[in-house]
Amino acid sequence: MKILVPVKRVIDYNVKVRVKADQTGVDLANVKMALNPFCEIAVEEAVRLKEAGNASEVVVVSIGTTAVQEQLRTALALGADRALHIETDQHLDSLQVAKLLAKVVAQEQPGLVILGKQAIDSDNNQTGQMLAALTGMGQGTFASKVQLADGKVLVTREIDGGLQTVALTLPAVVSTDLRLNEPRYASLPNIMKAKKKPLDVIAADSFGVTLSSNVTVLKVAAPASRQGGIKVESVAELVDKLKHEAKVI
Amino acid sequence: MAILIIAEHNNLSLKSETHKVVQAAAAIGGDITLLVAGFNCKAAADEAATVAGVSKVLLADNAVYQHQLAENIAALVTEVGKDFSHILAPATTSGKNFLPRVAAMLDVAQISDVIAIESADTFVRPIYAGNAIATVQSSDRIKVLTVRPAAFRAASDGNSAPIEAVSAAHDAGVSAFIDEELTKSERPELSAARVVISGGRGMQNGENFALLNGIADKLGAAIGASRAAVDAGFVPNDMQVGQTGKIVAPDLYIAVGISGAIQHLAGMKDSKVIVAINKDAEAPIFQIADYGLVADLFSVLPELEQQL
């Protein structure tokens, strides 16, 4: 069985983002970029399934400018076998990404698609569900455990209030939550080997998917900043302030 | 404008998030229909009919909807919702699960985690873990939105909207429910609580979380946790507050032994009053806390419980 893992290049999660003064977006110039943390977990899970003998090949795919090849190489260094770069310089919404990925699914015929539950830049949490809809596959979102058995995948999902387990007929789409696994680090020899692994570039236009979106960003602003607070000296003072000043208890 | 809201419920009763989505829908303006899809869920539909501002309740009561599997619910919502101008659900794990599937089936975008409605086609939502706020406009024929419950007040009760049965039974046949393991708690739900007290890595172990119990009881508070506390195995992960956990906006948020990483702040920085208790005076949490106490939590917590 082949596993397809879509990955995204995003701003590094430790970077404190700055909104541009003209409110057109956030400043991404000279900012450290990285593999989206949830995508890293997805790659790790796919590689673990392969190591356990449950998969024959792990294919990673990313959509964007040439820069995304850096993240594809990272995924290859983590153990993926082959990479696909779908090249476009357009900004795409989840629906367009899902449509492109549906075409890749049709070409590659994976038994399982594993992706992150959300990208930490747009915070949308949509692509996996949309891809499942477009391909008619079952979906196991927010996965904290994935097991393959008898042509099905058992996915334990993190839901409000606890955990839920569902069984999906393969092929299926799984989206990863933080607790699914702890991703490994890429070793230097593996980083060197990853440079020789196949990476195919395909133009996004060649898929026949309309890449424009009906959603326009009117402005991006900084969140309202909180008023600087005060430090209290004792528990008694804290309780007094909460009772009489803030009036919340 | 015709708005369809997918109610959040557990087949027995409606969850408070639904009331908040109704309030958000009222800001769009138009006729509001609530869809209650589940199994043996008449009681939840009866409750939905009492929510102020709702003009009709649709009840899809069928075994295929019992566990709200995304594949089945999405097919139902796509069929029922195709003539509406807006389809809304709360940005809970349930709404986030099925609604993007609905949007893709309708071939429209979804706007996630809306925190303000500017007009019928213009919405405000946080991006980059709440470090930027985007205003977006949609020209899609159907606007599909998940709404952040913590950003809206709850619609009141006192209505008696008519209930209409929907007979459609969609079973996509690609997924099945196996089991569920819910955390038992007598306390208010984290996302709906008026007061939240959360512990972080500074709590040192799971047993020490008991120190928060007495305070939570006195304040009627829910207990939360930072990701560090969850990852260290102190508490179950449904208690996590943050970008990847629950988003809360209570009147009072007490952060105990939490440093205040960006990802945690994303989940609680819209709280009305924030209190931080931390022994590290340089912890970033103090930059957003209204009241900070630099002290050892193990001496502060018993004292606080006593003084309340």
From TrEMBL, chain A:
<protein>
    <recommendedName>
        <fullName>Electron transfer flavoprotein subunit beta</fullName>
    </recommendedName>
</protein>
<dbReference type="InterPro" id="IPR014729">
    <property type="entry name" value="Rossmann-like_a/b/a_fold"/>
</dbReference>
<keyword id="KW-0813">Transport</keyword>
<dbReference type="InterPro" id="IPR012255">
    <property type="entry name" value="ETF_b"/>
</dbReference>
<feature type="domain" description="Electron transfer flavoprotein alpha/beta-subunit N-terminal">
    <location>
        <begin position="23"/>
        <end position="211"/>
    </location>
</feature>
<dbReference type="InterPro" id="IPR033948">
    <property type="entry name" value="ETF_beta_N"/>
</dbReference>
<dbReference type="Pfam" id="PF01012">
    <property type="entry name" value="ETF"/>
</dbReference>
<keyword id="KW-0249">Electron transport</keyword>
<dbReference type="InterPro" id="IPR000049">
    <property type="entry name" value="ET-Flavoprotein_bsu_CS"/>
</dbReference>
<comment type="similarity">
    <text>Belongs to the ETF beta-subunit/FixA family.</text>
</comment>
<dbReference type="InterPro" id="IPR014730">
    <property type="entry name" value="ETF_a/b_N"/>
</dbReference>
From TrEMBL, chain B:
<keyword id="KW-0249">Electron transport</keyword>
<dbReference type="InterPro" id="IPR014731">
    <property type="entry name" value="ETF_asu_C"/>
</dbReference>
<dbReference type="InterPro" id="IPR014729">
    <property type="entry name" value="Rossmann-like_a/b/a_fold"/>
</dbReference>
<keyword id="KW-0285">Flavoprotein</keyword>
<dbReference type="InterPro" id="IPR001308">
    <property type="entry name" value="ETF_a/FixB"/>
</dbReference>
<dbReference type="Pfam" id="PF00766">
    <property type="entry name" value="ETF_alpha"/>
</dbReference>
<comment type="similarity">
    <text>Belongs to the ETF alpha-subunit/FixB family.</text>
</comment>
<dbReference type="InterPro" id="IPR029035">
    <property type="entry name" value="DHS-like_NAD/FAD-binding_dom"/>
</dbReference>
<dbReference type="InterPro" id="IPR014730">
    <property type="entry name" value="ETF_a/b_N"/>
</dbReference>
<protein>
    <submittedName>
        <fullName>FAD-binding protein</fullName>
    </submittedName>
</protein>
<keyword id="KW-0813">Transport</keyword>
<keyword id="KW-0274">FAD</keyword>
<dbReference type="InterPro" id="IPR018206">
    <property type="entry name" value="ETF_asu_C_CS"/>
</dbReference>
<feature type="domain" description="Electron transfer flavoprotein alpha/beta-subunit N-terminal">
    <location>
        <begin position="3"/>
        <end position="181"/>
    </location>
</feature>
<dbReference type="Pfam" id="PF01012">
    <property type="entry name" value="ETF"/>
</dbReference>
<dbReference type="InterPro" id="IPR033947">
    <property type="entry name" value="ETF_alpha_N"/>
</dbReference>
